[in-house]
Design a protein that fits this description.
Layout (H helix, E strand, L loop, with lengths): L3 H9 L13 H7 L2 H7 L19 E5 L5 E4 L3 E2 L7 E2 L8 E6 L6 E6 L5 E6 L9 E4 L4 E5 L1
Antiparallel strand pairs: 1-2, 1-9, 3-4, 4-8, 5-6, 6-7, 7-8
Catalytic activity: L-methionyl-[protein] + [thioredoxin]-disulfide + H2O = L-methionyl-(R)-S-oxide-[protein] + [thioredoxin]-dithiol
Enzyme class: oxidoreductase
Pfam families: SelR (PF01641)
């Protein structure tokens, strides 16, 4: 189970080694993604709150990265956070995500990226439910639900 302390250590010193790496040129990313997905995954953008595919969706399955298909979150860790974006309490695996400090927009946050293809997913915050207290606030455009 990952805790806030672990995330800070990963962001400050070193992230877990990914199971594999996917690297593409910017042209390849533009061809593979929709314009909105490209803006979010490669440009570190965000989507409108509450008006996205998975904010209010609670179907059973696995959420994978739109960029590379890596398993990121299980639907069992998804919860209603009233944040406007899909929220999860834990990643699928310790090495599924990459953490980076983000001080854009005059805020101090921790950015979450896919550890395999370095695509921007969203941010993680220490205000989630127990037992670990994490809230992974993820853009719907960066993930895809694979129903069971």
């Amino acid at each position: 189970m990952i805790r806030w302390r672990d995330i800070i250590i990963y962001a400050k010193y070193s992230n877990p080694e990914p199971p594999r790496r996917v690297e593409k040129t910017e042209e390849e990313w533009q061809e593979a993604l929709t314009p909105q997905q490209y803006r979010i995954l490669r440009g570190k953008g965000t989507e409108s709150p509450y008006r996205n595919a998975y904010c209010r969706s609670y179907e059973v399955g696995k959420y994978v990265c739109v960029g590379c298909g890596s398993f990121l979150f299980d639907s069992g860790t998804k919860y209603h956070a009233i944040s406007g974006w899909p929220s999860f309490t834990q990643p699928a695996a310790k090495n599924a995500l990459r953490y980076l400090f983000d001080d854009s927009y005059k805020m101090q946050r921790v950015e979450v990226q896919c550890n395999v293809c370095s695509s921007h997913l969203g941010h993680v915050f220490p205000d989630g439910p127990e037992p670990c207290g994490l809230r992974y606030c993820i853009n719907s455009e960066s993930i895809r639900l694979m129903p069971e």
